Amino acid sequence: MSEVAGIYARESNYLDRCVQVGVASDRVVSVSFPRNFASGADAQHEVLDRIFEYLEGDHDEFRDVEIGLTVPTDQRSVLEAVRELPYGTQTSVEPLTGRIPGFDPEDDDDRDRVRTALDENPIPIIIPDHRVRDGPSAAPPKVEQRLRSLEGL
């Protein structure tokens, strides 16, 4: 990635929304799905290109995309585990909780911490919370459904 910072956005016919990517210090810090993109947003960025290729059927897992997470440590652990879920596979909250060091899949509080991290995920698609079938997604429900459909989930 070149030295860039800013907001990048394009309208997606597939999602029936815009895809907006926030970049700071060469790291993706946010992905959102507003109805209209931010004024002054640039339509050209390589991560945005890759997201649109993914929406057209490319099997991109985005693991090489540099991200900048500014979330609490326990949420970071959850999101890092979610980022490792392969394209076209899904899990549920309980087994995901069991993959996170220091979390107990039998503990209601730990499962709630996982759900909170999924719900507050600042970088959906890049961190594919749509692959957790019984957890919340940071993406709007229609977007989550489309992403799951795209991957055959």
Fold and architecture overview:
The protein has a three-stranded antiparallel beta sheet with strand order 1-2-3, covered by helices on one side. It is built from five helices and three strands, in the order E-E-E-H-H-H-H-H. With 153 residues, the chain is of the alpha+beta class. The longest helix is centred in the C-terminal third of the chain and has 12 residues, at 108-119. It starts with 5 loop residues before the first strand and ends with a helix. Helix 2 crosses helix 4. Helix content is 32%, strand content 14%. It folds into two domains: 6-55; 73-150, Arc Repressor Mutant, subunit A (Orthogonal Bundle), CATH 1.10.10.
What is the average per-residue confidence, as pLDDT, rounded to a whole number?
Answer: 93
Which CATH top level class of the largest domain fits? Answer: Mainly Alpha
Low-pLDDT residue intervals, each spanning 5 or more residues: none
CATH topology description of the largest domain: Arc Repressor Mutant, subunit A
> How would you describe the shape?
globular
Helix content: 25-40%
Radius of gyration: 15 Å
